[in-house]
Amino acid sequence: MVPSEENQLVPKEDMFWNCRQSIFAEMKKKFSQVERAAEEPRVLCIIQDTTNSKTVNERVTINLPASTPLKKLFEDVALKVGYVNGTFDLMWGNGDNVIDTQTPLDQNSDKTILDAGFEPGKKNFLHLTDKDGEQPHLMLESSSATDDSAQDRFIGPLPREGSVGCSSDYVSQSYSYSSVLSKSETAPGCSFSACTQEVHPPLPGSPPASGDSCGREAQLCLAGYVGLVNQAMTCYLNSLLQTLFMTPEFRNALYKWEFEESEEDPVTSIPYQLQRLFVLLQTSKKRAIETTDVTRSFGWDSSEAWQQHDVQELCRVMFDALEQKWKQTEQADLINQLYQGKLKDYVRCLECGYEGWRIDTYLDIPLVIRPYGSSQAFASVEEALHAFIQPEILDGPNQYFCERCKKKCDARKGLRFLHFPYLLTLQLKRFDFDYTTMHRIKLNDRMTFPEELDMSVFIDVEDEKSPQTESCTDSGAENEGSCHSDQMSNDFSNDDGVDEGICLESNSAAERISKAGSEKSSLLYELFSVMVHSGSAAGGHYYACIKSFSDDQWYSFNDQHVSKITQEDIKKTYGGSSGSRGYYSSAFASSTNAYMLIYRLKDPTRNAKFLEANEYPEHIKQLVQKERELEEQEKRQREIERNTCKIKLFCMHPTKQIMMENKLEVHKDRTLKEAVEIAYKLMDLEEAVPLDCCRLVKYDEFHDYLERSYEGEEDTPMGLLLGGVKSTYMFDLLLETRRPDQIFQCYKPGEVMVKVHVVDLKTESVAPPISVRAYLNQTVSEFKQLISKATNLPAETMRVVLERCYNDLRLLNVSSKTLKAEGFFRSNKVFIESSESSDRHVAYTESHLWKLLDRHANTIRLYVSLPEQSPGPQFRRTVYQKSSGDSGNLDEACERVKGPVGNRKSVEAILEESTEKLKSLSLRQQQEGNNGDSSKSTEASDFENIESPLNEIDSSASAENRELENQIQISDPENLQSEERSDSDVNNDRSTSSVDSDILSSSHSSDTLCNVDNAPLPLANGLDSHSITSSRRSKANQGKKETWDTAEEDSGTDSEYDESGKSRGEAQYMYFKAEPYAADEGSGEGQKWLMVHVDKRITLSAFKQHLEPFVGVPSPHFKVFRVYASNQEFESVRLNETLSSFSDDNKITIRLGRALKKGEYRVKVYQLLVNEPEPCKFLLDAVFAKGMTVRQSKEELLPQLREQCGLDLTIDRFRLRKKTWKNPGTVFLDYHIYEEDINISSNWEVFLEILDGAEKMKSMSQLAVLSRRWRPSEMKLDSFQEVVLESSSVEELKEKLSEISGIPLENIEFAKGRGTFPCDISILEIHQDLDWNPKVSTLNVWPLYICDDGAVIFYRDKTEELMELTDEQRNELMKKESSRLQKTGHRVTYSPRKEKALKIYLDGAPNKDLTQD
């Protein structure tokens, strides 16, 4: 037996080894393939899906071997993104190696991706686009068709417009797919229960497109239904429109209505636009349809798209509008036939049995979610329907006056359904009003609803015992209040009492019972539409879940997205949460729940199907054909748009000399010659220049650089010239023009453009630029020869200065250097001077040329508005010069005006007028004497403390100052600065709360300026003053506003003089030229203006001194305000700041009033009125100085308060305290010193509080709190009373409160106020909402944290009972408190958007409301 066993084992062992060897061979083969693949270069492809707005910003990345064929690339992309291969195109994206971005790749090609133009080692961008204008088809995985509950796995984009979504969860680097319904409340997804071949059938009645029926069928099979585009907030409209579209009876009736164009404008015809929309929903190949035509027929404009409305309200208003439009047509009674039901509103006397009633009609039944005052919601729709018809007993004060008994009797009042409509609409009243918060709320409680609803149990078949119990004319029933009155939704007044199957007037009781019984047997309704609301009462989102009667499949219509859903998904719209949380339980529930339910009566004799294509009326067939043609036309237009190049076009108008800008749109196949014709007409040059004198050149707007011209390429397509059709181009086009006697210059790539300005030293002028093109490899010597030919100036004596950047003027004096080495770029600016003057032998930085160019680069033009008013009557001086000399020399201190005399005043005339005005006012004051006039002008207060001899003249002003070369001379500081502080200019001062950012501009005046300075500006550390200032600004003031209320500087002094008293302006030669300027109309009659050319490196201090002769007062006594584009004025106070932040044509306003000096701050003073409705009142602006005590500031405030505010106070009758927004803070004691004890800063604000008695605050260790007593038995709050504590002890606080209130110490309870002062709170909430009697021993710990003055403390007597209020008293108190709190601006925690009534305008005009009869 052994040999036989061995004989049996040998073949098994051989088989094992053979298998092993084959496995190893296969593994070796695989490893060799991997090694070869590792050596092969790989291509990185980045694909952007442009067919879907949801995925357009996402990317799919595929890394393939370079030998991969193109058709394999398409297969891999299809698997990656979830599309059926062959239903999409791949096009090149924007790459450097791309020539044509609009030609799709060949998906059937065996060419490798390397041969197709893909580059290994680089990013290759591709766009996934529609194929032949149709959307890509989604790929579906096969699954078991028998297992309906299993969710099919699907890899692809999110559910798209017009496409069936997905139910699987898939996450990749580029896409994120999720089960929408299970994870998103507002975007229901879908789940498939069939394989690819077993999808839902096409829409019923869809007409086959000629030649495209297979494609349309395939798309419908995959896409299902078409969505609707949400204009902004029109989701409520989309939900209703999709529901009506999916209602066979409504759609068929709408199709049978024929539009007569001769009778009505199609734009304003609501039925016609609905008809068009339904045809598009049924036949369109788009993913989603726009609803703008429908809303336009409503008479709505674009603003209505941003108003969210209630879907039930829209349903009622739109049905009313359709009834109006359908009058005298077959569809006149369509709404009533489909949606209208009837009910009886009755009142029955319980003593005699007499019953009064009336018949009402309804279009929907509003069902209460939660009864008023109850904390439990109804569990189901059936429960809510029973409650709807549950009668109530009228007894006690609500007794009913019986017509038969002739007295008030107990009665039963209720509703009875008499007839249910064919389409039953139930509105779940989820929106309610919370009388506690006085806000609307949404009830998210759970309420179930059945798929089939038997309404037979709710219809009334009971006949009354006595035939005399009915009356249809009982006024009491009409006027009597009812708990159901707010539940009715009735705009109809059909009181005929006639009903289908029920006629209470003519039929006997037996007949009524018979007919009603037959109706009861057929009152089974099936649910087919659930309109869902997700969100809160303030706003949210609507979508619809609708069952198709064609295949009994549920779909989610969520704006653009249409997807399959299951019955389980419908149950998720019940709302609610597990467990009960009392009245506010709905706040913890899901906010996505059903809002409107629509049921259809199950009646085979009436249940309709959608019309088939062959059953369409003739006008619908024509409409279908018309819409198909329009859609094809749109498709062709989109194709044209895809092949249109859109690029910026510029043109310098040959006669107006202004740069014009437009957008050139030209098809990629149009030639350059045709594009020139299009640009020529676009720029409207027909009357300015002939067409043959124009051409298009490549242009760089940013650098103002002509890159190249296109000689000999007139017949080249624009797509080839521009590098294909792109969304944006890195260059622009310029339509260049020439005179007929000129020829165009050839622009070659690699050239640079140079703007050459010729400088004339004799006239000190700079000529407009001449354009010259050069090469970067040219030398300076060759460049001079080039300029010489262009300007006809000798190259031998030519000096060339390059302006590389702002204020960087470089002399090109090395002839052998190349332009590239000198710093030339694409666009350059040079100044040339070619004269025989000796200036060319002077050092460059000392030369006349450098000074002129330096001044040209730094000079700006400003417009200065001089003050109309003169100083106050107590101002005793008119000029600031020293005593020697006469007033004539003052005129000579200014620049002579060189210009026409005309209506322009000379500078001397302006000065003389200003001086004479001051003299006359001064003499008038001397003659009048002290007349005791109490009405002093604000301007007077700024000058009343100035003491200087009259008519002092500065002898230092000489004839040299007449020239434009003048050295800044600053007068003796002792005569310039007042020894005493004067009041601020209240009326002319401006708020400094906001201002535009500093404008650091390098632009300079293009005007021809003359007269250069005598000496160069001294430079420290090799930098000019502008660069130093700009550096400091950019670092210290980045993001800050250019305004200060103080003259204080972080470093250095801000005074016009340094510590030695020397003028900082000495030895600085700054350009300043002023001349009169006639301002535009509307700038103020009699307003005096100066046009000033000034070096922007001049300081504000020196600039003000130059303006002194024109203003007529010393510089410390007028203020400079910068005027911004919005005409806001902000004071400039930093005296040592330069004007570098100013730019050409900025405006400046001069106002009289003392400017801030070093260490001074402008402070806004507000009055604190603790017991007034508005506790914060602005009083005035004041000036506080560093080192000043609080008492000194109070002394200076006294006269201002008396004169400006009418407050006659003594210094001990008021205090100053810290102001933090509206909150009062630390009390400032008289001995406190600003900057030492009190931090003072710009934009500072303080409270002024008037005291009832002597000041109780004597030390910083004390604590001042504001107390207010709450009286619960009276439901009122007392006035504020201040309590001063010696420590932070809670026990001391209670003792003080007990002293002022008389409440026993042990009964005192207190709580800290919340929010900003005065910590207002509703008296309905204060008793329970505040944290009463905190368990702490000191005030400066949690939860109080009272560490500073001004805290608000509420207190009460704990033994005092809360007043009991009736419902009427509570409601009245709620209204009063809500109004009070809203007026004061406190407790504003909810600010909903103002609601706008929903209206449909039947005539298309919004000024009429015809939606109601």
Q: Report the mean per-residue pLDDT as an integer.
A: 75
Low-confidence stretches: 1-10, 141-223, 463-510, 578-588, 870-906, 925-1067, 1387-1393, 1408-1413
User: Strand-residue fraction?
Assistant: 15-25%
Give helix % range: 10-25%
Distance between the termini: 111 Å
**Oligomerization:** single chain
Q: Any idea what the radius of gyration is?
A: 44 Å
Number of helices: 30
Q: How many beta-strand runs?
A: 54
Biggest beta sheet attributes: 8 strands, mixed
The rough form would be described as extended
Structural class: alpha+beta
Could you describe the 3D structure shown?
With 1413 residues, the protein is of the alpha+beta class. It contains 30 helices and 54 strands. The strands form 13 sheets. Strands 11, 16, 19, 23, 24, 25, 26 and 27 form an eight-stranded mixed sheet that branches. Strands 33, 34, 35, 36, 37 and 38 form a six-stranded mixed sheet that branches. A six-stranded mixed sheet has the order 40-41-39-44-42-43. The chain is extended and about 130 Å long.
Q: Care to give the gist of this entry?
A:
The protein is an alpha+beta fold and 1413 residues long. The chain has 30 helices and 54 strands. The longest helix has 38 residues, at 2-39.
